[in-house]
């Protein structure tokens, strides 16, 4: 049944209900909002921009890289969906980690993810500003970033419904764009698109073969593809503010498989079939532009710039939302400054302001300290998503048994072949960490992220000991913010 909640008086701290949801937040997201957030979350800026490096490294075998990493993401989302359907919470995996492992784990996973989202907001703002200044040369990039920040600050401060509407239309535009691309690409591959010849397998087995750079290239492509899937977690955060959280999470997770296969693996297959993997345009201007240009579509560059701009703005909007809800949830569980947990009219406005401010600070640092502080920030958050995935997998291993014993009726979504696939996913994550250590380009990211994680764990353990909580929490029950 749809849930409703009456927000507390203006200026009160967020509270946490018995199942870990933040009761001060409203349930203003409709099912169509949640469905499109889930769909649009798959189509991120990393797909349009970052996939070029993967293709250049792995060649046509990038399809295998995206398929393998996509399978891992499906397993992670299934685990997260199982826990979120059983206990919807705006803190999502942070709440689950706290319930399963202890307060220190919820603290670490939550704040690491908050830092990641805030840094991502700044990066996406910079990327979007570069596109706009390309259309309007002479205008300052920082001013465009500030404008984008103000707009999304406004939408997130207004109400969750406003956020949902913005994200609904952003996601709709991305879905239409990628669908049209796939249709045109398939028609070209079949040789039925006017003025184009079917490429056959020339680009798949020519130019060095299917794996032109061997297994090393495939590994680099795999690492590039893993981080392109970031953003899927937002749907489980948003579900807590939807009309029917359990149904929304279940539907989003159950359709994750075909979305990943279609949008990521499908688009990579179309691109490497149509365009030689070593075409300089794949990296210089992006693989999607290279494919459209190969098909002779006029204005391909501008079309892709518009699509990428929409993807970046959508990600900014979603990340401000996700960061603010994560911070609000952490404060509601006594894991952060009370000011960030102030909820007014169902919106955690203090958390929205703080998250946006931190994001804009990252933008300023890219101008003030481009050679030291900003790269350090990027490295520090480079592997955070993998840390989060590990917390998700470990939490699901623990909570599944607890649910089966105590509340089996809450297992609306079940992890496949439990516990074998959960353990397999953890082993795959460990393998990715090992591969990152072997690659010079990713080693610094892993070490910096490890340092951030270690610091957060230390703070979380100290806070837990000071508060006298040595065990795990039962169901994300509330504690007074400290």
TrEMBL record:
InterPro entries found in the cross-reference section: AA-permease/SLC12A_dom, Amino_acid_permease_CS
Pfam families: AA_permease
Protein name, entry field: Amino acid permease
Keyword Transport: yes
Family: Belongs to the amino acid-polyamine-organocation (APC) superfamily. Amino acid transporter (AAT) (TC 2.A.3.1) family.
Transmembrane segments: 36-57, 63-80, 101-122, 142-161, 168-193, 218-240, 260-277, 297-316, 347-368, 374-399, 411-434, 446-462
Keywords attached to this entry: Amino-acid transport, Membrane, Transmembrane, Transmembrane helix, Transport
Residue ranges of the region described as Disordered: 1-23
Organism annotation: Streptomyces brevispora
Main location: membrane
Domain of life, source organism: Bacteria
PROSITE patterns: AMINO_ACID_PERMEASE_1
Bias (Polar residues) ranges: 13-23
GO biological process: amino acid transport; transmembrane transport
């Amino acid at each position: 049944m749809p849930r409703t909640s009456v927000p507390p008086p203006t200026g009160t701290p967020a509270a946490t209900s018995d199942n870990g949801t933040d009761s001060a937040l409203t349930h203003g997201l409709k099912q169509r909002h949640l469905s499109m957030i889930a769909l649009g979350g798959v189509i991120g800026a990393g797909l349009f921009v970052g996939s070029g490096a993967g293709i250049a490294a792995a060649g046509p075998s990038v399809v295998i890289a995206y398929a393998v990493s996509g399978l891992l993401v499906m397993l992670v989302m299934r685990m997260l969906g199982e826990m979120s359907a059983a206990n919807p919470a705006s803190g999502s995996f942070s709440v689950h980690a706290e319930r399963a492992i202890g307060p220190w784990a919820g603290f670490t996973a939550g704040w690491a993810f908050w830092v990641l989202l805030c840094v991502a907001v700044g990066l996406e703002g910079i990327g979007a500003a570069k596109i706009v200044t390309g259309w309007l040369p002479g205008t300052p990039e920082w001013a465009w970033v500030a404008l984008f920040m103000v707009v999304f600050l406004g939408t997130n401060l207004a109400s969750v419904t406003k956020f949902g509407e913005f994200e609904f239309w952003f996601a709709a535009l991305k879905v239409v764009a990628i669908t049209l691309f796939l249709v045109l690409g398939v028609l070209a591959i079949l040789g039925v698109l006017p003025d184009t010849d079917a490429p056959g397998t020339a680009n798949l087995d020519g130019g060095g073969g299917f794996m032109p750079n061997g297994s090393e290239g495939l590994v680099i492509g795999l690492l590039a593809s893993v981080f392109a899937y970031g953003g899927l977690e937002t749907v489980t955060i948003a579900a807590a503010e939807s009309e029917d959280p359990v149904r929304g999470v279940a539907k989003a997770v159950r359709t994750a498989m075909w979305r990943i296969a279609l949008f990521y693996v499908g688009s990579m297959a179309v691109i490497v079939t149509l365009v030689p993997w070593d075409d300089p345009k794949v990296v210089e201007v992006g693989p999607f532009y290279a494919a459209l240009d190969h098909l002779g579509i006029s204005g391909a560059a501008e079309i892709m710039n518009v699509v990428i701009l929409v993807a970046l703005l959508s990600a900014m909007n979603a990340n401000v939302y996700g960061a603010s809800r994560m911070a609000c949830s952490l404060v509601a569980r006594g894991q952060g400054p009370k000011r960030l947990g102030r909820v007014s009219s169902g919106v955690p406005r203090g958390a929205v302001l703080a998250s946006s401010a931190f994001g804009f600070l990252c933008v300023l640092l890219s101008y003030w300290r481009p050679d030291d502080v900003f790269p350090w920030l990027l490295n520090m958050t480079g592997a955070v998503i993998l840390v989060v995935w590990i917390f998700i997998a470990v939490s699901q291993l623990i909570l599944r048994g607890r649910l089966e014993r105590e509340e089996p009726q809450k297992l609306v979504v079940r992890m496949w072949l439990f516990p074998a696939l959960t353990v397999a996913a953890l082993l795959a994550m460990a393998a990715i960490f090992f591969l990152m250590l072997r690659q010079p380009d990713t080693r610094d990211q892993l070490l910096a992220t490890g340092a951030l994680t270690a610091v957060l764990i230390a703070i979380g353990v100290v806070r837990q000991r000071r508060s006298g909580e040595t065990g795990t929490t039962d169901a994300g029950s509330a504690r007074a913010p400290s």
